[in-house]
Amino acid sequence: MTLGLSHNAQWVLLSTLILGTAAGIIGCFAYWKRQSLMSDALSHAALPGVIIGFAILGVKNLPVMIAGAAASALFGALIIHWIRSSSRVKEDAAMGIILSVFFGFGVMLLTFVNRMAGANQSGLDSFIFGQAASMVSKDVWLMSGLALLVLFIAIVAFKEWKLFLFDAAFAKGLGLSSRWMNSLYMFCLVLVIVIGIQAVGVILMAALLITPAVSARYWTNSFKWMMVLSALFGGGAGVIGTLLSAYGKGWPTGPFIVIAAASLFVFSLALGIRKGLLVIGIQQYRQRRQLNQPSVQNLHLPERGGSG
Amino acid sequence: MLPVLSVEGLSASYRKNKVLDNVVFDVEPGTMTSIVGPNGAGKSTLLKVILELHPRLAGKVAFFGSPYPKVKSRIGYVPQRGSVDWDFPTNALDVVMMGLYGKIGWLKWPKRSHREKAMEALAEMGMADYASRQISQLSGGQQQRVFLARALVMDADLYFLDEPLAGVDAATERAIMATLNLLKSRGRTVLVVHHDLQTVEDYFDHVLLLNRSVIAHGPTEEIFNESNIYRTYGGTLRWRGARSG
């Protein structure tokens, strides 16, 4: 199946599939750590690092820019943590500050760097809204490799992640260090963000982390299946978005990926078999009908005995 | 005999408030102790500091004569029910299995024998029919029993329970006390943060009266009297003796 795509575009498609899968899984972790917004703050905070990475070398070199993005995102995380623990400012406010300041700083740097010779052709702008088509095969390999690493960490330690996310204090009692797991989580989250920003862009990267997990929640009551579904939704959104943008000339990928993910969310919200709107509506309708048909039994006998 | 738990000069604070001040006590093996005191007396904090879940300012804690990290696997902890998000997508059996993760080994998958062990613990708590029930659909009492079953499978020598009887129904209270008594009869040691003064004498053979530091500690019949309780609670108490009056 070639879908009328060039050889390069097919590889790009594969890499956004793997990226979306990894983002879906790490998004599940972020969801249960109540850190969905944190992923948004971190992806915005990655922008200055990308630009500085470019400015240092003067050419587009993805490993260096990814390293810069990671450093700058982690620096942002550090400041958020510091603001929260050493001042009266709450975490959401701290994230709001870091998100906008880092992004503003990044755009400012971008304006300067774009005046440098050859910078206009570098495709730096694509890091804001994402441009999967601008990736060359080396980028594709790097991105896929790192995404597979994240997938591996998530699957191999599935049992540990579940315990850590459900009850970190109990996990610690069993010898599973919270500090270690938190660091590993942060490592995976930042890794997914920095490898995703070229394809999806810093502004919209968080949507690929948050939306699949939220959608998956409407379909299952098992953590394993939530991870699997979130991975499928993320991967699906990555592929659909990349395909759509590939059919236009120079269309940004990020918005299409996000719209694909959001469509899956609306679908899940309406039809999801757990807490989906349709299911809840039917349940309420049935209950109301039962109440409206009074019988002697319903009035006098409780439905079931025993302790609740 | 070597005490199961030995706490020496333990102090801890939350932000600027010192909530524990020079706490000293020893716990003998095979005893069932209730930790009793007013709100904000530091009961839960005491457990958390002992189990290294909250930093201590000063003091020493020894379990079976060893520091905590060496004997982790011999200690079972049942946190307050409200400490986790019960909306987490998992079922009762799965939560009980978590108590076995240390035995299963890190990065390894549970086997059928582990599953059977977890089922046994659920059955012991009268929860066998609820094994595959989503934890968000359990009542408060049932959630508490799941937590206790998770501690049971650990097969620990020393158990810490944080308010296990708070807000549970009568059936759960009976099931939990039966289990704790069973543990005691097997020579295990149990410490329970408890809030109901009326039941202390019926349920526990030892009492630790706590209000930032230890007010009194010892066998219930010797310690649990009006003057000690008054010293613990100050003027805030309205209590008419459970057995005497």
From TrEMBL, chain A:
Its main location: membrane. GO terms for cellular component: ATP-binding cassette (ABC) transporter complex. The chain crosses the membrane at residues 12-32, 38-57, 64-83, 95-113, 140-158, 184-211, 223-244, 256-280. Keywords: Cell membrane, Membrane, Transmembrane, Transmembrane helix, Transport. InterPro entries: ABC_BtuC-like, ABC_TroCD. GO terms for biological process: response to zinc ion; transmembrane transport. The keyword Coiled coil does not apply. It is a multi-pass membrane protein. It is found in: Cell membrane. Belongs to the ABC-3 integral membrane protein family. PANTHER family: ABC-TRANSPORTER METAL-BINDING PROTEIN (PTHR30477), METAL TRANSPORT SYSTEM MEMBRANE PROTEIN CT_069-RELATED (PTHR30477:SF3). This is Metal ABC transporter permease. It comes from Paenibacillus arenilitoris.
Automatic annotation (TrEMBL), chain B:
Keywords: ATP-binding, Nucleotide-binding, Transport. Residues 5-237 form the ABC transporter domain. It comes from the Bacteria. InterPro entries: AAA+_ATPase, ABC_transporter-like_ATP-bd, ABC_transporter-like_CS, Metal_Ion_Import_ABC, P-loop_NTPase. One of its GO terms (molecular function) is ATP hydrolysis activity. Belongs to the ABC transporter superfamily. This is Metal ABC transporter ATP-binding protein.
